[in-house]
Amino acid sequence: MSVRKTAMILFRVLLLAFFAIVIGGSVFGFSINGWWVFMPLAVALAIGSVVGRSGPRREAAHRTPVEVDPPVRGRWSALNSPATKVPSHGTHGYGQTYAIDIVAEPEDGPRSRPGFAVLWPVVRRVRAFPAFDEPLYAVADATVVRASDWRRDHLSRNSWPAFAYLMVIEAAVRETGGAGGIVGNHVVLDLGDGVYAMYAHLRRGSLAVRAGDRVRAGQEIARCGNSGNSTEPHVHFQLMDGPDVDSALGVPFRWRGIGVPANGETFTAGQERAEL
After folding, report:
1. Same domain, 216 and 238
2. Would you put residue 122 in left (φ > 0), alpha (ψ -120 to 50) or beta?
3. Closest CA to 239 of 87, 131, 100
4. What is the C-alpha separation between 49 and 35, in angstroms, rounded?
5. Domain containing residue 152
6. Using an 8 Å Cβ cutoff, are 85 and 100 in contact?
7. E strands of the chain, at which residues?
8. Count of domains for the chain
9. Rg (CA), the chain
10. What is the CATH number of the domain that holds 156?
């Protein structure tokens, strides 16, 4: 077992210990006063911080990006992009160093993407977002090594009250459930040469593949959802050096015909395959 994996297990055990102390004290009435109550939480946060700051080694961080097909078709825009900052999500944890989030931005059609709300509506249904249920495609010929789609698609968290709830309470609870609680429904593809692609926050029950399947580039493998630690239906995509997001480190990528869109940049995917 790798050091990163061991650290993440210890991180979750300590979080669970803290929650057990607080909840146990409330239920059974024993005193939870004193600094010792917060020791498990403090140590857990310290471990999480170390893991989050520990990224790929210098030589790996400067490797040539792996070129793959885009995982979507149509018009999208980028959020939390490695073209804007690295690590893109503010942490190296869960192999996210070069991860990218993208949201659908159709120019016309029945749905446009709702904006972020200050107070109201606090939450929205997932079908209010054009990304929901959009098909996702294999970015290369690959073998499916992990596939999970049993978690529910929850309401959006794209208002300040809902976002605060997500970051302060919901994310901590999800952390105790393992990496799957954070990435939600997901699929991991083995692209070969020690490179793995992960798609996160998939729609419940949408997987068209299972572990062990061989897929071709451009084959539909799942659909976009809002499971796991997600503010709204979107595609979270990343390359890693291993199949386990607890222990993997990020690998830089480029989408064929697109590159790596920066935060707020809109792009259209699918034209490059039509031209082949």
Report:
1. yes
2. alpha
3. 100
4. 21
5. 62-274
6. no
7. 66-68, 74-79, 100-104, 135-137, 142-148, 186-192, 195-200, 214-215, 220-223, 235-240, 250-251, 253-255, 266-269
8. 2
9. 19
10. 2.70.70.10
| Chain CA centroid to CA 223, Å | 14
Q: Tell me, yes or no, whether 49 and 73 share the same domain.
A: no
Tell me the mean pLDDT per 10 residues along the chain, length 276: 91 90 72 75 92 78 88 96 96 96 83 87 96 98 97 95 93 90 97 97 98 98 97 97 95 97 95 47
Residue type for position 11? F
Question: How far is CA 60 from each of CA 55, 64, 96, 240, 249, rounded to the nearest angstrom?
Answer: 9, 9, 14, 11, 9
At a CB cut-off of 8 Å and minimum separation 6, what does 38 contact? 18
Q: Structure pTM?
A: 0.92
| Whole-number Å distance between alpha carbons of 139 and 141 | 7
Contact 47, 7 (CB under 8 A): yes
d(C-alpha 123, C-alpha 105), whole Å = 20
Rounded CA separation 97/198 (Å)? 13
